[in-house]
Amino acid sequence: MNLSTELPDIPRTIGGIADALDERWHRRFWDDVRGVDSPGALGLLLNDWWRQAVVDTAGDDPEARAALEDAADLHLIELARAESDGSTLTHAEVGSTPVRP
To answer: How much of the chain, in percent, has pLDDT values that exceed 90?
Structure first.
């Protein structure tokens, strides 16, 4: 893995991700967005789709896609560590957890 792979500048927002995603993903992305039922679930959804948008910037180059996938994963891990209060939840648990003020 190339640890110096630079990530493209894609905002982790609904609009930023929608703009960056390959067109083949748009319908599924918007279906997922419409199905979000909690702020925690929205954050996870944005992270998942942001990762896909990052990978899509590599086009059809498998090596570039793999490098961007690894770099995006590391970025999201660091983000989670920075935002963590030490507790851990699964994707399923996030949707059923009350939002903290």
So the answer is: 66
